[in-house]
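User: Show me a protein chain along with its predicted structure.
Assistant: Here is one chain, sequence first, then structure tokens.
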Amino acid sequence: MPADRIRFTVTLGELAEVPGTPFSYWAPPSLRALFHKYPPLDRDVARQPEKIKIADVKVGLQTSDDLRFTRCWWEVPAEAIAASREETHQGKTWVPFAKGGRPFYHDIALVVNWGNDGEEIRGFSGAVIRNESFYFRPGLIGEAGHEFSAAVREGRLGIACFPGGAIFSAKAAGIFANCDVWALLGYLRSRLPQMLINILREHGSGQHGEIAQLPISPKYLTNSYLSALAREAHDLLREWATGEETATVFIAPWPLQVWHAARSEPRSEAEWRPGNTSPRPVLNHEQPGHEIEELSAWESLQPVTGHPLARDFAWSDWESARAIRRAALEAASAGPGLLRPLAQACVLWERLLRARLDEIQRQIDDEVYRLYEISEEDRTLIEQELGKGAAEPEEAEEETKEAGEEEEGEPVAPGVLSPEEHIRRLVHYLARQAVRASENGIVPLTDGYTADGRLERGLAHRVREQLRALFGEEAMPTVEGELRQALGKSLEDWLAVDFFGYHVGLFRLRPVIWQVVPPSGRRRPTADLPFSVFLDWHQLDADTLRKVRYLYLQPHLDAARREVERTERDVVTAREAGNLSFRDERELERRLQEQRARRDALRALADKLEALLRPHALRVESRSEWVKAKVNEIIAEGYRPHRDYGVRVNIEPLKQAGILPPDAERIRG
């Protein structure tokens, strides 16, 4: 409400103009009148059957045990994800499961067990299956919770495009329109609907009932301008998601996309690379009539996830998208170095994207205000009211989380990613690729021989091999320097100390690369780990820990024992000869203590692995009784992982054994 208004005069009849007669005394009559002037979005939910039917606003599936029935999509094989009811009868168990989220484009992180058309969930007494006929249909989606995600705090509803081939949850408001959904999306992303929600309920919860009562002018839902703006915003955000490793449309980290597109450009006689000091050749997109060729350089990049929601991905031809790509390519050729110019090009890409999205939002607001004939006075009121944002977290109404409820865990980016973050993500991607490409899903931290005499290259070596293949041998000194600067330490140290925790956060507490380390009371691993291996979740089986113990760890343990025995003999021999100085004896004792500590750490890890391979039981803290039961099921006869049970269940025994870095404690639920 306006800051200078301390007294309002309003009749009960005027309050009754708004459905439900909320005590929105501060709302101007012109905005309250919209509820009578236009039909509601969903006449059935709004109980106005005489009005025209514009859309259905529905809530969806409540599993009542998400930890049992849902996974992050990267936990399951892509070929097991269905995109239609028919595919669930063809051996595909999992279906994309949306709970709402980011505006315009929301990448669906979860999948739900809907094999054989939801057979297992239908047999679970706690599940509530609502509005099943709307499953797998395209429409719009938004959270139906108390804060409507971060979007409410910017004064807009968090509405996104909802693709066909997915199921929506009870936490979401699914909107299935009988009109151009893009125009409706544009309208719902303007500030006016959020203001009207605030009038319906003073703090604007975004419950699906209030959304259904929003007044909609049918003739405006054919507005091609709104439709184009919404679609452009969606496409720009979907293209940006292709650089996010957890996105269904992931292609490659953003710097590698820019690198690929730059190398695909026609070159001058001297080969161009980011940051070289020779005169920069004129790139193809700077020559008149070559926009098609510029676009084709990006079109060769396609999603690699195999996710069904990525099947229809195509790079857009919006002028804004082409301008952003051109700017990124040009920025990649500026400045010294190689990785850093690529990373700075990605920073520019995101800044230009955000600037265009802000502009789209302003254009949408202007058009909606014009179409609904909102006066300048009312517009000022709306901007002032919504500019305050939503209630602070401590003032917001508490929601009780159901037992076993799983959130999508979508990270909220507080700002533009830094060049250093882009380089960290590149290293993370290459390390994950190296572990995934390993023959048995096990990669040691450092080079070493296995018990059967094979030389196994360490993770840092494998990451460097990929960098060398990408950028060439001559570029490696430059690359090494840029890596050290961005990581703040050597590649080896970052992989030993920071990689796993970084991976846990990036993969939303459902990591697919696990780091096995000796048990320790330290808060985190140190760079001088006596032994560590990385495991690929998708290759985890009943023999994995046995291989770690006897194939990979045993040679290190044998070597450590021999080293201790040799040094102990040296100490005895030197003391008997009486030719040790006090300083030399102290140094020898120090070395012996370090060697014993190393041996003991390796022995402790061996003992932990052997204990895991024996039958045992655990006490598990979880909101889900199913999780507790399944953890003990997979260890009842010694550790026998069952990947269908997901990361949360399978990682728990290793967590409790203390053979994972402390960041594993964040994996709960």
